[in-house]
Design brief:
- The protein has 8 helices and 19 strands.
- Strand 16 and strand 17 form a beta hairpin.
- 39% of the residues are buried.
- Bound molecules: uridine-diphosphate-2(N-acetylglucosaminyl) butyric acid.
């Protein structure tokens, strides 16, 4: 395998050639690539949220910008600047070891810090936008630096401007977050409460919350190092209440979360399971046995095989429930 292959750089373990993989350790490294006029350019972080379906006729910039520093603080808040190539979970652990709250519910999410605003990562009742302050990025066409504040990022459910209007245009170098010295715990997600109760914890610390989240995730989500996967493959669909009511006729027990007066969010995992696709394997492509929303590569599945399996799931869910699932992962 050539060193220009993406195989070690994506958690679904897809093999794909490139024109070159260039590690980026600083802003200066990005400017040097721009001076060399290498093109086209694509950016990879932790590689935990992409499905690569073909060889890439592009130079790949691998974000390795590191560092976590406190740049401002007051009596209750701390503003930190984080290199976008830092591992997200390591940042969560850093925050806990410094007794800083706000991201403990986001423990063990794979990927790097630069991908967090891009995906607006979320779990167990928290999304990264709740602690996001701003980010610095380099425009790969103009070679200029820009700061994006929260309102510039157009955060939504697993959405941001970086997945839409300016997709592929900016290399995120640093992300600034506001963390809290006093802790406002978010334990409203049922599974966290249950886990804390099981552990006999009545007055949890941020570390207890992170540990509960880690245990929950480890119990139902496959470790990509053991079984290659990219976490949730599809987004949870937001549908008209009438669609939920129609499903409820046959399945009164379906879970749903209110969005507004007209819409609800329903778990894609539930739809996939009830379309008969939990723990199913077609060749080496499949869904995990303990979580239907996680597509896994059981061995040597190709990107094309994974994509075609994902399409089958989309079609089966749509024909059974009238709901079209939209991928959450980025398809390359
Ligand atoms: N469910 C099933 N079958 C399954 C699994 C789950 O029917 O095989 C049902 C259960 O009723 C459960 C519901 O689906 O109550 C929701 O499941 P879960 O709590 O596991 O969460 P999710 O909606 O599948 C979302 C995020 C996850 C995040 C969890 C926890 C998305 C696309 N996914 O999953 O994020 O960890 O909530 O907050 O929003 C990711 O983005 O990669 C990811 C793992």
């Amino acid at each position: 395998m050539s060193q220009n292959n993406l195989l070690p750089y994506n958690t679904m373990r897809m093999s794909a050639t490139t024109k070159g993989i260039i590690p980026i350790y600083s802003e200066q490294d990005v400017f040097e690539v721009l001076v060399e006029e290498l093109s086209p350019l694509k950016i990879i972080g932790g590689g935990s949220n992409i499905l690569i379906t073909k060889d890439q006729d592009a130079y790949i910039l691998k974000n390795e910008i590191k560092g976590i520093e406190v740049i401002d603080e007051d009596i209750d808040k701390v503003l930190i600047k984080v290199g976008a190539g830092e591992n997200w979970h390591q940042l969560v652990m850093w925050a806990i070891s410094h007794d800083l709250g706000g991201i403990e519910n986001l423990a063990l999410i794979p990927g790097c810090v630069g991908a967090a605003p891009m995906q607006n990562i979320g779990a167990y009742g928290i999304e990264q936008e709740s602690v996001f302050h701003s980010l610095s990025a380099i425009n790969l066409e103009a070679g200029t630096t820009r700061v994006f504040f929260k309102e510039d990022c157009k955060f939504g459910y697993r959405e941001s401007i970086f997945k839409n209007e300016v997709k592929g245009k900016y290399f995120i170098t640093h992300v600034n977050y506001i963390l809290s010295k006093s802790h406002e715990l978010n334990t409203k997600y049922g599974a966290i409460n249950q886990k804390l109760e099981d552990l006999g914890i009545t007055n949890p610390s941020i570390e207890d919350i992170a540990n509960a989240v880690i245990e929950i995730r480890q119990s139902k989500l496959p470790d990509p190092k053991v079984i290659p996967n990219t976490g949730s493959f599809f987004k949870n669909p937001i549908v008209a209440i009438s669609i939920l009511e129609a499903i409820k006729v046959e399945y009164p027990e379906i879970v749903s979360y209110p969005v507004d007066d007209e819409k609800v969010k329903i778990p894609a995992a539930w739809l996939i399971q009830h379309a008969g696709y939990k723990g199913i394997r077609v060749g080496d492509a499949g869904t995990h046995k303990s979580h239907a929303l996680v597509l896994v590569n059981y061995g040597n599945a190709t990107g094309g095989e994974m994509l075609s399996f994902a399409k089958t799931i989309q079609e089966e869910v749509e024909s059974k429930f009238g709901v079209r699932l939209i991928p959450e992962v980025n398809i390359w």
